[in-house]
Amino acid sequence: MQKSKSNESTKACIINCNKLIILFTSAFILLLASCTDINFNSSKWKAWNERTGKLTLRWDMCDDLIEEHLSIGMERARIVELLGEPSSDCIQSDCDMIYELGPCRRGINYGSLYLSFKNNRLIEIFKHCG
Questions:
Q1: pLDDT beyond 70 at 26
Q2: pLDDT greater at residue 21 or residue 10
Q3: In this prediction, what percent of the chain has a pLDDT beyond 90?
Q4: Which of 4, 6, 49, 115 could cross-link with 97 by S-S, CB 3.0 to 4.6 Å?
Q5: Looking at the DSSP assignment, which residues form a beta bridge with residue 110?
Q6: pLDDT, tens digit, for every residue of 29-82?
Q7: Do 75 and 104 share a domain, yes or no?
Q8: How many whole angstroms separate alpha carbon 37 and alpha carbon 57?
Q9: Which residues, including other chains, have CB under 8 Å from residue 65's CB and lie 6 or more apart?
Q10: End-to-end CA distance of the chain
């Protein structure tokens, strides 16, 4: 009878250890997946091609781009010099430029960077995933 209790206790311990291993492994994978930001590089940004490049390159660079390289009031021409031609553009000066960012690491969604201008000056920056 005592051996049976010991076996049950050992099995329960093994099950709990397996659950902990799964929990810590999942947390580690989530942590790695969230640490994907890389420094913005103008040459790599311009050369990016969704078909031939690292799919998430632009998405991974975007936070650094917004925080360190773009600023409200920048001239439209300076942004095109920095990022290359946008994926979508308007003729008038009060509209958005859109840069495709590729997959945004959230399921199957793709990201875009929207830049709004007034009088050829940047007035709004919006990163979108969806």
A1: no
A2: 10
A3: 54
A4: 115
A5: 103
A6: 443 445 568 999 999 999 998 787 788 999 999 999 999 999 999 999 999 999
A7: yes
A8: 9
A9: 40, 45, 83, 113
A10: 60
* Calpha distance 37→55 (Å, rounded): 14
The pTM (predicted TM-score) of the whole model is 0.69
Domain total in the chain: 2
Please report, to the nearest 10 degrees, the dihedral formed by the alpha carbons of residues 18, 20, 25, 26 taken in order: 110
pLDDT at 96: 86
Three-state SS letters, the chain: CHHHHHHHHHHHHHHHHHHHHHHHHHHHHHHHHHCCCCCCCHHHHHHCCCCCCCCCHHHHHHHHHHHHHCCCCCEHHHHHHHHCCCCECCCCCCCEEEEEEEECCCCCCEEEEEEEEECCEEEEEEEEEC
Domain span at residue 99 reads 37-129
49 and 22 fall within a common domain? no
